[in-house]
Each structure stands twice: as C-alpha cells, then as structure tokens.
Amino acid sequence: MKQTTSTILMIEPTNFGFNPDAAETNAFQQHLSDFTQGQVQDIALLEFRNAVEELRKLGVEVITFRDLENSATPDSIFPNNWFSTHPEGKLVTYPMAPASRRGERRADIIRHLKETCHCGEHVALEFYEDRETPVYLEGTGSLVLDRVNKIVYAATSPRTAIEPLLHFCGQLGYEAVTFEAYGPTGELIYHTNVMMCIGDTFAVVGMDVVEEQDRDRLYTSLTGSGKEIIEISKAQTHQHFAGNMLQIENKKGERILVMSKAAYASLNEKQLNRLRAHNEHLLYLPIHMIEKIGGGSIRCMIAEIFRAEKQLSDDPML
C-alpha cells in the first residue's frame, strides 16, 4: 500500500464562478465584484491550464476532463469532493451538501474511472443526500487519508457527518479519527483538507484551529503512525490555504508536495526546510482567482487516481 500516486485527474472549468449555494457552508469563498463572470472564468482557466502544464513538466500523469459547456456546476474544478479511488479496487462516490454540486457526478467519468482503475466495486454513498434528514461526506475534502496505516482524519462539520464516515470506514477498512476544527468566522471548518495534509512520512496540520480538547488525541494518532508533524498557524490556514497541500509523486518515484503560490509565500524558512526534507520537489502554483472565488485550493483541484493492486499469483514461486 502506498500513500502517493503519480496519476491524477483534474476538471477543466467552463463556467467557474462564485457559488452562493456552496458559500452557505464555506466561509473561505469571496465574491469579487470588480470582475465579470466571464473574466473570472477566463482567469481561472488560465490558472488551471498552467497548473496542469507544471504538473506534467515534473512527470506527473494528469488526466483531464472538460466540464460541460454552459454547465450549471461552477465548482466542477474541485472533483475530489465527489469521488475517490483506492488500490483495494474500489471507487467511492459521495453525498454533497450544496445541491448545485451534485451535477458534477458524471456517468462518463465514472465509466472511465472503473476502466482505468480496474475498480471491482463502486461504493455509492450519495443516497445519504435523499434521506429525510440528509447528511454529507464530501470525498477527500472531508476525509484526509493515511492510506498506509488505514486511518482517516475528519473534522466534523455540516459537510462531514459521522454516519457516512463510518460507512466509508466499514467498506474500506479504515479507522476514523474525528475532531472539531474552526474556520475564519468561528464556524466548523467546512473541509478537513483545508487544515491538514498527510504525506508518506509527515503531516501538515493547523493545530491552532483544532478544538483544544481534541488536539492531544490528534497529535498522538499522527506521531503513533510515524508522521513528523509540521504545524502551520491559524493565519496560514485561514488566509493562505497552507493546509490545502497534497503529496504526489512522478513517474521516477520522486515525491512532490503541491501547494498554491499563496500557501508557499506564507510559509517561513523553517517550515519550508522541514517540508523539503520529506519531498524532492515543492511545487507551488498561482491560483489566486480559484482560491478566492471557489474557497478551495490546489489539493481540492486534484483527484488522486489509484489503480487496483494486482492480485498475487497462486504460484508460490512468483
């Protein structure tokens, strides 16, 4: 089992913009009245294409799909919220809180994932949206996975509920570590991946935004699974998306920590040196419009692709 992959999927936007439906539970979004909708889309598209180009330059396999023309899904650039793939041979799709985002789930992408990843089972959790009292779990926004140690970290919120979380754990064999964390207006932080990143040998954590009584348990779990904890401040978490990083690798097996340019600029030299000790490359990408309007950063734009691990031969000599 590996923590990182060299294959990712990203969705090119066609109608990116401020989504008031999502903003009800995402305090990181900003409405910029100085830009027209067309300008916002044009700038976001340039940021997206540059990110794809830079990732490919470092040897990452980037699969891209284009959002539908004239789509009603302004947040489609964040595909990690509606699906995840796993080397256990499972594809998981998730219940999403903003009704406007549910149209991001596309049958053609699901078919592609099943074929590409050799997924033998589709764990469909979106039925939680249709309950009399619906609850939600928004993919690897809600879930920060330690894939090697089979631990899932989740900051509970209106978008991250216990029942579908435990359903996920039962299907994938994970242990859940839950806690509360707070966003810039004192609300429960909408996604765990805004304040936390798990790498193969380290964890970036905005410990200052975690409920004080939950910190020791979170710290113990991370250190007990062999992670070096690299803490970021409340300001770095809330204002610069410094927690919204993702470790991937390239085809050479070199480790790449991907973050936004804003996140990188907020880090001090000690933090950067500690991150460099765990990664061959720190890749920082300018995505200012996407961050401000969408309320998410580069990790949210990347859906990791894990192909099913091959079954071992019955031949004991192999």
Automatic annotation (TrEMBL):
NCBIfam families according to UniProt: citrull_CtlX
Renumbered to this chain, the signal peptide range is: none
Species this protein is from:
Pontibacter aquaedesilientis
Q: Which InterPro entries match?
A: Amdntrnsf_FN0238
Q: What is this protein called?
A: Amidinotransferase
**Taxonomic lineage per UniProt?**
Bacteria, Pseudomonadati, Bacteroidota, Cytophagia, Cytophagales
Q: Tell me the domain of life.
A: Bacteria
